[in-house]
Amino acid sequence: LPFFEQEHHWAKDLNVALALTGILIFSGSFSLGMGGIPWVIMSEIFPIHMKGSAGSLVTLVSWLGSWIVSYAFNFLLLWSSYGTFFMFASICGLTVVFVERLVPETKGRTLEEIQASMNSSLAPVSSGINRAA
């Protein structure tokens, strides 16, 4: 088969087409799935007076995280291709657990209801002592 590939260059073109198809499928899947999660969460959990500065911070963290992953990926592949796969798979699994346990359901709720539930979960627990008395 390798001698056949040397005579006919169609296999090289097929590899390019498969790589491009894989990148397009990944990009589309990521955009429909986890790619929009920070923006949706940000628009629902931050109060209106903080949305501008919080949006800037979320954008900075998102782009910084993307840069770190892109920069470190080749070094990780040199370290271990299997280890790189399992590390990213573990991070994806932890992300699913994080979303399941800590991200509140907001479907059918108003912004005020979401903010009230987030504020009630962050409110300090009172000791039961009446300070006004």
From TrEMBL:
InterPro entries registered for this protein in UniProt: MFS_dom, MFS_sugar_transport-like, MFS_trans_sf, MFS_Trehalose_Transporter
Organism: Aegilops tauschii subsp. strangulata (Goatgrass)
Family of the protein in this entry: Belongs to the major facilitator superfamily. Sugar transporter (TC 2.A.1.1) family.
Entry protein name: Major facilitator superfamily (MFS) profile domain-containing protein
Origin: domain of life: Eukaryota
Residue ranges of domain Major facilitator superfamily (MFS) profile in the record: 1-107
Subcellular location: Membrane
TM spans (from-to): 16-42, 54-73, 79-99
PANTHER family: PTHR48021, SUGAR TRANSPORTER ERD6-LIKE 5 (PTHR48021:SF25)
GO CC aspect terms: membrane
Keywords of this entry: Membrane, Sugar transport, Transmembrane, Transmembrane helix, Transport
GO molecular function term, any single one: transmembrane transporter activity
Membrane protein topology class: Multi-pass membrane protein
Alphabetized Gene3D superfamilies for the sequence: MFS general substrate transporter like domains
